């Protein structure tokens, strides 16, 4: 079995969302954190996807 490394991050998403003004954006805060640390997808790609799905 391959040994895989796991890295954990503490992201106070609820607190950040509250500072923004709405707890409803906590999932977007988490998505932004994932984009920032993973390097798997760019912020521009995420913005494009959100725009496409919002309409």
Overview of this protein structure:
By secondary structure, this protein is mainly α. The chain has one domain (13-54). It has three helices and no strands. It has helices at residues 13-20, 26-38, 43-54. Helix 1 crosses helix 2. It is flat. The mean pLDDT is 90.
Provide a compact summary of the structure.
The protein is mainly α and 55 residues long. Helix content is 60%, strand content 0%.
Counted up, domains total 1
Structural class: mainly alpha
Count of DSSP strands = 0
Instruction: Specify Rg, calculated over alpha carbons.
Output: 14 Å
Mean pLDDT: 90
Strand content: under 5%
Topology as a string of helices (H) and strands (E): HHH
Rough outline:
flat
User: Biggest sheet: strands, sense, closure?
Assistant: none
Keywords for this entry:
mainly alpha; 60% helix; single chain; flat
List the helices and strands and how they pair.
Layout: H1 13-20, H2 26-38, H3 43-54
Helix pairs in contact: 1-2
């Amino acid at each position: 079995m391959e040994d895989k490394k796991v890295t954990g991050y503490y992201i106070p998403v609820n607190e950040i969302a509250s500072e923004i003004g709405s707890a409803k954006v906590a999932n977007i805060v988490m998505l932004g954190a994932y984009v920032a640390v993973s390097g798997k997808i760019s912020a521009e790609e995420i913005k494009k996807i959100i725009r496409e799905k919002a309409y």
